[in-house]
Amino acid sequence: MQAEIITIGDEILIGQIVDTNSAWMAKELNKYGIGVSKITSISDEADDIVTTIEAAMKRAPLVLMTGGLGPTNDDITKKTLSDYFGMKLIQDDELYQKIQDRLAKYGISMNPFNQEQALIPDGARIIPNNFGSAPCMWFEKNKRVLVSMPGVPFEMKGIMQNGLISAITEHFETSEIVHKTIMTDGIGESVLAEMLSDWEENLPLNMKLAYLPSPGKVRLRLSITGESKPALEKMVDEEVEKLKKILPDNIFAYDDIAIEERIAELLLEKGKTLGTAESCTGGYIAHLITSHAGSSAYFKGSVVSYSNEIKEKVLGVNSKDLEKFGAVSQEVVEQMALGARKVLNTDYAVATSGIAGPDGGTDEKPVGTVWIALAGDFGVQSEKLELYKVRERNIKVSAFKVLNLLRKELEK
Amino acid sequence: MQAEIITIGDEILIGQIVDTNSAWMAKELNKYGIGVSKITSISDEADDIVTTIEAAMKRAPLVLMTGGLGPTNDDITKKTLSDYFGMKLIQDDELYQKIQDRLAKYGISMNPFNQEQALIPDGARIIPNNFGSAPCMWFEKNKRVLVSMPGVPFEMKGIMQNGLISAITEHFETSEIVHKTIMTDGIGESVLAEMLSDWEENLPLNMKLAYLPSPGKVRLRLSITGESKPALEKMVDEEVEKLKKILPDNIFAYDDIAIEERIAELLLEKGKTLGTAESCTGGYIAHLITSHAGSSAYFKGSVVSYSNEIKEKVLGVNSKDLEKFGAVSQEVVEQMALGARKVLNTDYAVATSGIAGPDGGTDEKPVGTVWIALAGDFGVQSEKLELYKVRERNIKVSAFKVLNLLRKELEK
C-alpha cells in the first residue's frame, strides 16, 4: 500500500527550516508495510492546500499531513480542511479542559488563541496528542483517509506512536516491505558498482538495489515487497551472504546504523570504555556518542582541546613537539590520544587534529589535512587524512574515520 | 517569480535520508527574489519523474531538480529527462577528460559506470560541477526552464553558487523578496500572539507575519514582496521598531542566526574567551560553537565530563558534594563552571548537568531535570530547568538556555 505525505508551512518553502518530519514518518510507515510514493511541501495558503490534498487523495488511499495547526493567524490548515470536508468547527470540551490545565501549570489563563486550539471539525476523528494542544484529525472520504497533524516534530512523533499507527493498520490491509542496508567503507561508489555488477544483475527480479554515498562511506540498500515477511527476509539474507563474499573487508554493519552505534555494541560486548580528545572535530564525536541513550555505560568523556594551551595543560602534549611539528601532526595527535586515555582513564581514546577550513591552510598542510589517532592497551596508531575544503564535511568525515579505526580494532 | 523544487531518490521516500537540499536551495533562491511555491520528493521511477516535471513546468517558469544522477543503475534521471525533451545522450569529451583526470589522481582507471557519467543530452546546456562528475543540465521548453543537478549536497551547492544562480538571474526578470526574522525567547507562542495581536492587525497589507516555535525560542518572520528592495526594507524596519517597544526584553537577535553566532559576535567584540564543561549536553555546545569557521578566536575548548570521575579529576568538583548533592545539582554544576573556567583558562565558562533521558530519572529528579551554570569574573550563576522526556530535545534546549544565559551577561 502507498501513502503520500504533505507538509505545510511557509518556513519550509523559504528554507528557514528543514523538513525532517517526512523522513521520520516515511521510515515509520515502512515498518508497517506502507510505502511513501510522494512527499509535497506547500505554503500556508488555502488554495494550495485544497489543490494538493485533492490530487494526493486521488493517487493514494492514505495521506498524512503535518503543519499549519498552531494557534497563530498564519496557521489555516484546520479551517481549510474543515471547509473542504464540509464540516463545522465546534468546541471539544475535553481538549478545552486539557489546554486550560496545561496553561494553569504555568500560571497562564486561556486567551482567544488557546480557545481556537480547542475547536475541532465535527465529524473528524481525533487521535490524541499527548505533547501539545493542536489536535490530530482523521478525515475519511470514500474509504480514503487524510490525517492532519501538528508540525512540531515531537508532537507528531508522539501522535504516530501513541495511536495513529494502530488506527492506520486497523483501517487498511497492508503488505510487507523489507529493507536491508549494508554499510560499506573504503571503496568509492563507481568502483563498488563495478565490483557488484554481476551480483546486481542476478538479483531476484522484484528486489531493488540502491547506492547511497555519504561522507566516508557507501550504504547499499536492498528492498523487496511481498506477502510473507519471513520469505522476503530469507531472500534478502541470501543476497547479503553473496555480498559478504564479494566484500570481505569493507562491510562495517548490516543495519542502517551510525558508526557510533556499532561502536556502542562492541564496547558494551567487551566491557570497555572510551574517551575522546578533539581538536578539529570540536566535540562532534562526543556529541555523536552521547546522542544515544545509555552511552554513559561506555563513554566517560572528552577533552575538546581547541587551543594548544589545553593540548599541553590538560592532555599533556609536549610543548616542544607542538612547536616543532605543529598541532596538526602525527606526533601531537598521538600524544593527544595517549593523554586522553590517561586523563580520562579509559580503555580506548580517539583523537583528531586537523585544519577544518575554510581558512587556516598552508602549502604544506592545506585545508582538509587531518591527523587521527587511536590509543589502547596496544599503544597508539594514527593515520593522515587528506580531505576537503568544506568545514562541515571535514568534521563529519574525520569523526567517521577515527571511529572506524576504533571499530576495526574492536572487531579484531 | 515562483519556482518549484523536485528532489528525486527512493532514499528520501523511505526516510533513509532527510532532504536538506530543498531548504538550502529555497533560501538561496529567495535571496534573488525567487519564491518557492512547492517542493516535491519522488522516487527513481521514470513515470513519476515525467508526470511530476510535467505538472511542475505547467505551474512554474523555473523547476530545479536534484538527485538521480549517480553512476549506478538505480539512477535514471538523466536518461528520463533526455527522452522527455526528445534528446539523445552523447559523450561530452571535456567531461570525459575531467572524470578520467579525477580518477587518475586515485590511481583508478575509467570503468563503464564512469563512462556513462560523461554522457549528456545533446541540446541541454551544461552548468559546471566543480566537486563531482555528474553534470548539471539546463533544459528549456517554451521559455520555461528545468534544471537537473546531482543530489550530493556539496556538489549541488557548488553548482548553484558557481554558475546556476547567475544563469537564472540572466534568464528571468525577478522581483524582490525581503524576509526579516526576529528571535525571541522566554514567551510561549500563544501568549506572544496575544501580545502582538494589535501590532499584527495593523501590519501593511502585503506584509506577512509567521510564528516559528522551536526548542526554547520563537522566531517571528516578516515577509514582503515588491519592486524596490530599499523601500521594502524600510517598511520592515519600521515594523521591527514597533516590535522592539512591545518586547523590550525578549528579543535576542534580528537575524535568523543561531544563539552561538550571536555569542561569537559578542565575544569577538569584547575580546573575551569561552570554554564549556558539559555533562548532559555531551559535547553538543562545543560542537555548535566549533561548527562555525573562526571559532578558535574565542573558543578554547571543553571538558565533556560524562563520568563523575572526570568531574572530580579534571574539573576539580568536590567529591563530597558529588556524593551529597548528586551530579545533577546546583553545587556540582557551579563547581563545573568554575572548574572549567580555571582549567581552560577562559573569561567565561558554561556548564550543564542533567538527566537527558529517556531513563535515569527519580521522583526527586525526574528525566528533564537540568542544572545550567555560567562562570565569569563576576563569580558564578546557575539555573534549574525542568524540561522534557525526550533526550534530543533536552540536549538542544539545555544548550540553548545556557548559551542564552551567557548572551544576556555579554549584552549587559
UniProtKB/TrEMBL annotation, chains A, B:
Belongs to the CinA family. This is CinA-like protein. Residues 4-171 form the MoaB/Mog domain. InterPro entries: CinA, CinA-like_C, CinA_C, CinA_KH, Competence-induced_CinA, MoaB/Mog-like_dom_sf, MoaB/Mog_dom. SUPFAM superfamilies: CinA-like (SSF142433), Molybdenum cofactor biosynthesis proteins (SSF53218). It comes from the Bacteria.
